[in-house]
Amino acid sequence: MVVVASAVVAAVGGDPMTVLGEDGLRRPAWAAVDPLLRTYYDTEWGMPVRDERGLFERLSLEAFQSGLSWATILRKRENFRVAFADFDPEIVAGFGQADRERLRADAGIVRNRSKIDATIANAQATLALRDEGGLADFIWSFRPRTTPVPRELADVPTRSAESLALSKALKRKGFRFVGPTTMFALMEAVGIVDTHLLDSHRRGTSGIWS
């Protein structure tokens, strides 16, 4: 993700993937230098998201991130919000051919035809899930009994039994671009699991995991 400059941050405990910032807070290397990533890590990543629109946005952005860096998506996030009506699933579900063409011509987002079509299909699937309790309850029902306890980035898994199960369940409901690795990233981002390193200042701050 981010190459950490030793002049800016110092390694903690000999682990080059865990760094101490000039503010005295410990973060993984990917969140240690770039101000945008650092703010996202400090204030948002891993905090619980339990509302439909919030989860639809995170689900959509994780799909667009597939094959790209998260920094790329984060820098385009406001453009995505404008392009996709602030990720209101009711509006996105009604996008027609003119909207698809508009999105494919929008240089401010990722202009991938398959991902754009998937986002619209996922909005429609999100509306359908309301009859079964809604997207938020559905996704959170796959919360595991325990969470990883990583000391370094090498200890952080990229998928789990729960993310595989969530992936399969969402696909059965008509969702696309919801593979098990993408779903594990979603679970990390919205607090369903806590993969903050044990010596990070964010470990245990979600209120979900100690």
From TrEMBL:
Gene3D superfamilies named in the record: Hypothetical protein, domain 2
MF-aspect GO terms: DNA-3-methyladenine glycosylase activity; metal ion binding
One Pfam family recorded for the sequence: Adenine_glyco
Keyword Acetylation set for record: no
Residue sites binding Zn(2+) per the record: H196
Keywords: Metal-binding, Zinc
Matching SUPFAM superfamilies: DNA-glycosylase
Gene Ontology biological-process annotations: base-excision repair
Organism domain of life: Bacteria
Annotated protein name in UniProt: DNA-3-methyladenine glycosylase I
Organism: Naumannella halotolerans
